[in-house]
Specification:
Radius of gyration: 20 Å
Strand order of the largest sheet: 9-2-1-13-23-22
Helix content: 25-40%
Largest sheet: 6 strands, mixed
Number of strands: 23
Length: 342
Amino acid sequence: MSRVLIVGAGLTGSLCACLLRREMQNKVEIVVWDKARGSGGRMSTTRPPDPSSNSADLGAQYITSTSAYAQSHHSFYSELLSAGVLQPLNGLVEGLKQRDGSKDYMTPLGMCSVVKHFLSESGAHLFFEHHVTGLYRRGASWEVQRKAGGSETFDVVVLTMPVPQILQLQGDVEQMLSVQQKQHLEGVLYSSRFAVALFFPPDVVFSFPWAARYVTDNPCICYIAADSRKRNADAPGRGPSLVAHTSVPFGLEHLEKDKEDVQPLILQELHKLLPDLPEPVSIKCQKWRYSQVLTPVTDSPGQMTVLDHPLLVCGGDAFSHSNFDGCVESALSVLSVLKASL
């Protein structure tokens, strides 16, 4: 059996693991490492310290399917819909620019439930707080080193973390990249932003009618969601949650500041937009250094094979485009390389 390590428990990594299990069940042992304390990546859902409040999506907010992808990725949408992981987004979204034939979906249990669904289907051995720092070729396998010390050996490695983190790896990766591959990777650009989640006590009811709102006239905030309302999760005894995302220019301007210093600036602007907002019981601020891919790898190939033997392949939205379908496209591309190799 080939030991396959997938680095990154976000959407691309989890779907890769799931597809690999389905297509090559008896040929592979699948291991997934993530440096965070839980799965989801940029589709993470945050639970409040107080269980009387609803959780909140700090990253991706909902999934939009175009008519073309609704056909080509039909099996993935129908699987998630029939499992109850996805449901149509029926709440009012102010300022949403609808495209012809596109459909919006929300996740009743939060965006991380999409990733968790694919991980549970994968049967992978899942390890959190496993931060990969180096890759070293050892004959027909890879020695993968962790920040906490120690290393393990794998026959195949799939890297799905943001491209700048791939380029920072110690060991043999850099010298294995061709000049053109290195140029392509160095050309990838991400937007950066902050997100703030506010958790409220059970007696709070928001006075505005919308589930989410795009903001165009604020220097700091570009999007607000009554997150629990967006997900139809408001229920007696559970307090609502609210999420605000900052604009890309604001994110860029404050990127190197501590999130503790940026949080008051965001809250100040939020209270200008929603002056009647009650007092939350807790607040969580998140800095997304790598939020969305602005410039993907040239020609968006879905994956990049660094070495054939032992196989080292990179995937993720930087190799396609930055949404649900982009991650699906990348996972399918990585899978085709793995099948041809294994």
